[in-house]
């Protein structure tokens, strides 16, 4: 049965393949972007596209209620203009988006009566221990420096906003390090790599698979235990678009 999906961050690295996967499954998509170029790209992919500022809670609520989605998928980050010379500023921007932008999306989803909310998180926010890391391991709330900005000011409030909300089913996907088209690496890298198209497929499967909660999403053999995503989301780390 066709489902209405509201995809925040539809023109991003995960959003673009996710749009294609969702459309090919017969669902309808309203996608958000920040630029006219992103809107044109999304419309060319055959979906409804809206330009919106995630920090404008009223506008987010208006466009979401107009779209009347059953599912919200949050794939927003603020790393597109990353400057290696100023990494601190990029980390601060991304943490603010995860904290304030997620809060606005959650408030809009509650007001709209959304049934399920799927959000992008990261798989390298766990407190130090010997791997593998499983979903019920604690996050690194004792982090310092830029890691504290990422975890305490970004990931922790994002996950709490999604998982501690009783108005809908909240799902958090703790992704490993992306590789593939549109990312910073063409080949696997990091301690828990994941192909960007497989990451998008996990978000698609979370539309109607698995219970509320967190799921590690990465290639097998890394530091993240992925058995929960394999079992409950019926996810495939080897998924690739044809």
Overview of the molecule:
By secondary structure, the protein is of the alpha/beta class. The chain starts with a strand and ends in a 10-residue tail after the last helix. The model has no long low-confidence stretch (mean pLDDT 96). Helix 1 (15-24) crosses helix 6 (196-205), helix 3 packs across helix 4 and helix 4 (87-112) packs parallel to helix 5 (145-163). The protein has helices spanning 15-24, 36-44, 57-67, 87-112, 145-163, 196-205, 227-232; strands spanning 4-8, 28-33, 48-51, 71-74, 116-122, 169-175, 177-179, 193-195, 213-217. The chain is globular and about 45 Å long. Helix 4 links the parallel strand 4 and strand 5. The chain has a single domain (4-232), classed as 3-Layer(aba) Sandwich (Rossmann fold).
Second CATH tier, the architecture: 3-Layer(aba) Sandwich
Q: What's the pLDDT, averaged over the residues? A: 96
In this structure, how is the largest beta sheet organized?
7 strands, parallel
Count the domains.
1
Beta-strand segment tally? 9
Strand content: 15-25%
Structural class category = alpha/beta
User: Rg, please?
Assistant: 17 Å
Counting DSSP H or I runs of 4 or more residues, the number of helices is 7
CATH homology group:
NAD(P)-binding Rossmann-like Domain
